[in-house]
């Protein structure tokens, strides 16, 4: 069976200011929960697919965010763990704090939604053997952090360097280049984590077959519907195609993101065009025989196959 999932990291807008070393614009601070979440649900309804929503625990302190997420869970969307505070330097915090960030993030989500998350994605896709050890200790069913994409790794490294040259400091950090050695299809991690083993199930962030181009919300929305279809076709053949989005992928400058216009080309694209590109991917994968499921259900199926 060919499976596909659409996952969304619900990073609120201040995280993007942190990436670019900018002072956050408080007027845009809650756009992901106040605007993007409903657009994502509308997109899900239009494309007839469930969402897996990777959630930052601290954002649920705001009642509106907690209520929106709870409603999404009741409508059948999976709620997964994206840590408590979305510390980009999670891997550098020491084992006790790493455990607290993961364990407390899951606890807050369960308190808000009544459902214990079974999946985890690390902030910035950056992960280590130590983080995997914590995930295994906590009984997490699957991780979805490894991103074995040379183009993304090089672009991220260059972007952080360019920000530093301009006199600012990005909160984002660069993963070890050894991540590029990891399998591109789901696998059980070994030690080091970029080798196959018998540990936790890893569902890597999607790359295309062959060239290993990034197949994520940024690349899909920048590509537009026609090229997004091409990217989707380049993924056909994988046992699971996981399109990873962010809440910002359904927002644009007209929503109040003018301050990010010089720094993020994707926010310059009108959100209806972004939605069209995402739906083009869904249609292409469905035409290729893929069935859309949550990542929790995909992990269950993959665990039976492993």
From TrEMBL:
Pfam families: Polysacc_deac_1. It comes from the Bacteria. InterPro entries: Glyco_hydro/deAcase_b/a-brl, NODB_dom, Polysacc_deacetylase_ArnD. GO terms for molecular function: hydrolase activity, acting on carbon-nitrogen (but not peptide) bonds. One of its GO terms (biological process) is carbohydrate metabolic process. Residues 18-214 form the NodB homology domain. Transmembrane segments: none annotated. This is Polysaccharide deacetylase.
């Amino acid at each position: 069976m060919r499976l596909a999932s659409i996952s969304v990291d619900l990073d609120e807008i201040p995280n993007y200011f942190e990436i670019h070393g900018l002072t956050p614009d408080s007027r845009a601070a809650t756009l992901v929960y106040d605007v993007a979440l409903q657009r994502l649900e509308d997109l899900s309804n239009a494309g007839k697919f469930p969402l897996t929503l990777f959630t930052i625990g601290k954002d649920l302190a705001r009642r509106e965010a907690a209520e929106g997420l709870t409603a999404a869970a009741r409508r059948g969307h999976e709620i997964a763990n994206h840590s408590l505070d979305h510390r980009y330097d999670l891997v550098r915090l020491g084992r006790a704090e790493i455990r607290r960030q993961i364990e407390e993030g899951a606890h807050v989500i369960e308190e808000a939604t009544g459902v214990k998350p079974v999946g985890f994605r690390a902030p910035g896709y950056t992960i280590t053997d130590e983080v995997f050890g914590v995930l295994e200790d906590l009984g997490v069913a699957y991780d979805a952090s490894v991103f074995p994409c040379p183009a993304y790794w090089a672009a991220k490294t260059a972007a952080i360097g360019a920000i530093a040259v301009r006199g600012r400091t990005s909160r984002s950090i660069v993963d070890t280049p050894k991540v590029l050695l990891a399998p591109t299809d789901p696998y059980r991690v070994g030690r080091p984590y970029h080798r196959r083993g018998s540990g936790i199930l890893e569902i890597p962030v999607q790359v295309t077959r062959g060239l290993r181009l990034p197949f994520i919300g940024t690349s899909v929305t920048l590509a537009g519907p026609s090229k997004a279809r091409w990217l989707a076709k380049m993924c056909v053949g994988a046992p699971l195609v996981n399109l990873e989005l962010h809440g910002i992928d359904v927002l644009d400058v007209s929503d109040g993101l003018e301050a990010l216009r010089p720094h993020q080309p994707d926010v310059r694209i009108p959100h209806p065009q972004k939605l069209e590109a995402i739906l083009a991917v869904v249609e292409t994968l469905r035409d290729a025989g893929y069935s859309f499921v949550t990542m929790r259900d995909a992990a269950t199926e993959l665990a039976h196959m492993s």
